[in-house]
Design goal:
Shape: globular
Radius of gyration: 16 Å
Number of strands: 6
Largest sheet: 6 strands, mixed
Distance between the termini: 26 Å
Number of domains: 1
CATH topology: Uracil-DNA Glycosylase, subunit E
CATH class: Alpha Beta
Order of helices and strands: HEHEHHHHEHHEHEEH
Oligomer: single chain
Structural class: alpha/beta
Length: 207
């Protein structure tokens, strides 16, 4: 995976974007991820105020901020969705984070919010490297956290154009299910956890 960051640096230099703004991401713990069933990749927009950082190393220390929510969702999906009260424990969340991968479509560090058109532009200009990264991670399942608009064209998903974000969709080329879902910063409680459980129950044996 180090090769891809070298490629990003050269790519951003050509675009006139300071490569020091890049925040690395991907598989949190390689060994734990490859033992996990399913292998889950969360895809989000960008990272807030973390220029030159490494999201993977930062998350090895355990969940912080919105990552408590990601950790709860992960613990649910990896453990057949136990009761919500079981996944809120810190140790459970910390262990779950080690078993996932997480990437941002916009690799340059940003602020608390980012305009959709900026995410879209970054994803478009970086699409070859994003696809290379996703393919190298080789997940079984992608959770799209507020970025389904971009993933539809990035992964060339065959969606119902009338309802493009209503249901999980299969990326047949990669044999991956893509689940449109909420951004974790706005969806941290029991209700959204149960919504994810509902989706997993409906698609049991597929996701």
């Amino acid at each position: 995976m180090d090769v891809i960051w070298y490629k990003y640096i050269k790519h951003y230099e050509k675009l006139g974007i300071n490569p020091k703004r890049i925040c690395k991401d991907g598989i949190i713990d390689f060994n734990e991820f490859h033992k996990a069933k399913p292998k889950i990749l969360f895809i989000m927009k960008d990272v807030n105020d973390f220029e030159g950082g490494d999201l993977r190393e930062w998350l090895k220390e355990g969940p912080r901020y919105m990552w408590h929510t990601i950790a709860k969702w992960s613990a649910g999906m990896l453990n057949d969705f136990p009761m919500y009260e079981e996944v809120v424990h810190y140790d459970v969340k910390k262990e779950a984070l080690k078993k996932i991968a997480a990437i941002n479509l916009k690799k340059s560090s940003g602020k608390a919010t980012v305009a959709p058109e900026i995410v879209n532009a970054y994803a478009h200009q970086d699409r070859e490297l994003l696809l290379e990264q996703i393919d190298s991670i080789a997940p079984d399942l992608i959770i799209s956290c507020g970025v389904m608009d971009q993933l539809i064209w990035l992964l060339d998903l065959k969606v119902n154009p009338e309802k493009p974000s209503n249901e999980p969709i299969k990326d047949k080329a990669r044999n991956i299910w893509v689940v449109p879902f909420r951004h974790p910063a706005r969806a941290g409680g029991r209700e959204v956890y149960n919504k994810l459980k509902e989706i997993a129950t409906k698609y049991k044996g597929k996701l």
